[in-house]
Amino acid sequence: MANVKVTINGKLIETDSTRTIIQAARENGISIPHFCWHEKLSTAGNCRICLVDVEKMPKLAIACMTNVAEGMVVNTKNERVVNAREAVMEFILINHPLDCPICDEAGECKLQDYAYKFSQGYSRFGDDKVHKNKRVEIGPRVMFDAERCISCSRCIRFCDEIAGVHQLQFVNRGDHTTIETFPGETLDNPYSMNVVDICPVGALTNKDFRFKSRVWEMSFTESICNGCARGCNIEIGVRNNGILRLTPRTNDDVNSNWMCDHGRLDTWKHVNAEDRITGPMVRKGGILVDVGWDEAMAKVAGELKLFNKNEIAFIGSAFASNEDNYVLARFAKEVLGSKHIDRMSHRIDGGDDALLIRADKTPNDTGAALVGIVPGEGGRDIEGIVQGIRDGHIKALYAIDDDIAQHPELEKVITKLEFFAVHASNANKSTRIADVVLASSTYAERSGTITNFQKRVQRLRPAVVTLERERALDGLTMSRLDKFAAPNDSWGKGPRRDSRASWRIVAAIGNIMGGKFKYMTAEDVFTDITHTVDAFKGLTYLKIGSKGALLQ
Ligand code: SF4
Ligand code: SF4
C-alpha cells in the first residue's frame, strides 16, 4: 500500500493504492453511478455503468475495478463518459419492462433514478422485449420478477459472501440470462431479505411489504431493532400511523449494512396489532375496565401503600429502555425501599450465529442491569421472587414491559399475589391476571436508549404517534421538540393509542407516593442516568447520535 495523489474531475485527492477509482471518488464526495458494485461485496464489474475516462488509457475504464495510481487523472463526466453511460443505459433498458407505475422499487430504484439522470429519455428499440418469468416465489419471503433483473449479481454475491449459503446462480446466456436457485434449493436463509435492499431494481421484492405503499407516501425514522441483543440499526417505514416495513441502516460497528429476516418481519407487527392495550385499565368485579390515567395510577399507589417494603417486588424489562428501567429501579429502591428487583432472561442456548443474530432475544439486558435492575443487597432475584410469592412473603408485584406470566414457575404462583400491576403494550398472559394494566408505548412510539451486548448505547426514536405524544407536541414549543418527533404527514388517520412511556408512568406513580421525579422528557431521565451511573458518564443524546456510543 502506498500513498498516491490522483485527480478526479480536477480535484486533487490523496488516497492509497489499494483503493479503486469508485472508492477513492466516493470517499471524497464524488459519486460515480453503479449498479453491480456494492461497498460490502466483492467486485463483479459486469454492469459497465461506472465507465470513466482515465488519461493515457486508450479506452474508458470501469471505476469499480481500476485501482488508483500515482498521478492518475480521471474524468467522470466528460462527453466520452456521458455517451458511454447513455449507451449502457440504452442496453440495460432494451429489455426492461416499463413497470415503474406498479413496481415496489419505484421511488428508491437506481435504474429509475439513472434513467432520469443518465439516459437519453427515449428508446430506439422497436421490437418485442424478451419476456421472462414474473412473480416467481424464489424464497418464502422474497418474490422475483425476472424481467426486471439487470443481471448485476449482487444477490448471488450476498448469498455466497455474507449469508454463507450458495443458493442463487445465473442460468442461460445473453438476453435470456436470469437468476435461479440451485436445484432443490430456495432462497431461504436467516438473512435472505437483504437481497431485496441491495437489488438495484425491483426484481427482488419483500413479500410482506409489496404493494402496501408507494415509498414516497411513507416516513422513515431511524431506530434500533428490538429482536435481539445485537441492536441492528434500522429505519422504520410508516404510513397512516402504522408500521409497514423495517430496513437496515448502515452501522459498521454493529450490523454493517444488514439485518436478519426475523428482525425485519417479527419485531414490529405487535405495534399495529388488534390486541393493543389502548389505555389504562383497572380490574373491577373480576373484569378489566377502561379508566383514566389518574384513576389507574392512584389505584396502584393506594394499593402499594398497603404493603411493607419487603412484601413488594419489581420486575424490570430487558425489552424496555434504559430510561424506563432506571426510573423503575429508583422507584423501587428509593421511594418504596424494596430490594426485590430483577428482570427475566430471554436467552436461547446456542442461539448466536457468526454474523448478527444473538442468543439473547432482548435488546437491552445489558442496559437494564447497568441502570439498576438487579437485586439490592439481600434482595430477591427472579427465582427468589417466585419463591417469595410461593411462600407468601411477596404479596405485591409491579412489572413492566415483559409478559412475566410466561415464566413457567412464576405462572404457577402468580395468582397467589394480593396485588399485581403490569405495564403492557399488548394483551398477554400477564394482563389477563393483573389487577391494574398500564398501557405502555412500544419501542416505536417513544424516545429512549438501549444498550446492546457490546455495551453500545443507541437511540430509539418515535416513528408512530400516541395520543400522549400528539397532545404533548401541541403543547410544546419547537425548541423542546426532538427533531425526530416533529409532526409528520405519514401519521395520517391511523389509530392513536392512549399509551405512555413506562418511565413516565412509573415517575407519575412515584410522585403520588412521595417521590421527586421531575423528568419532562426521556432525555431528562438520560441526563440523570449520566450523573448517577458511572458507565454512562459524559454521554448525551447528541453524542449518541445516529451510530450510538460505546460505554466506558
Ligand atoms: S435480481 Fe436484482 S440483485 Fe439479483 S442479479 Fe437481478 S438485478 Fe441484480
Ligand atoms: S440480528 Fe437481532 S437486532 Fe439484528 S435484525 Fe436480527 S433480531 Fe434484530
Q: What is the fold's blueprint, element by element?
A:
Elements: E1 3-8, E2 11-16, H1 21-27, E3 51-54, E4 61-62, E5 73-75, H2 79-94, H3 110-118, E6 136-137, E7 142-144, H4 154-163, E8 168-171, E9 178-181, H5 194-198, E10 204-206, E11 219-224, E12 233-239, E13 242-248, H6 261-266, H7 269-272, E14 281-284, E15 287-290, H8 293-304, E16 312-315, H9 322-335, E17 341-342, H10 365-370, H11 382-390, E18 396-400, H12 408-413, E19 419-424, H13 429-433, E20 436-439, E21 448-451, E22 456-460, H14 467-475, H15 502-512, H16 522-532, H17 541-544, E23 549-550
Parallel strand pairs: 1-5, 16-17, 16-18, 18-19, 19-20
Antiparallel strand pairs: 1-2, 3-4, 3-5, 6-7, 7-10, 8-9, 11-12, 12-13, 14-15, 14-20, 21-22, 22-23
One iron/sulfur cluster (SF4) binds at residues 149-155, 179, 199-201, 203-204.
CATH class of the largest domain: Alpha Beta
- For the record, the count of structural domains works out to 3
Strand order of the largest sheet: 15-14-20-19-18-16-17
- Provide a count of the helices: 17
Largest sheet report:
7 strands, mixed
Distance between the termini: 34 Å
Strands, total number: 23
CATH overall fold name of the largest domain: Rossmann fold
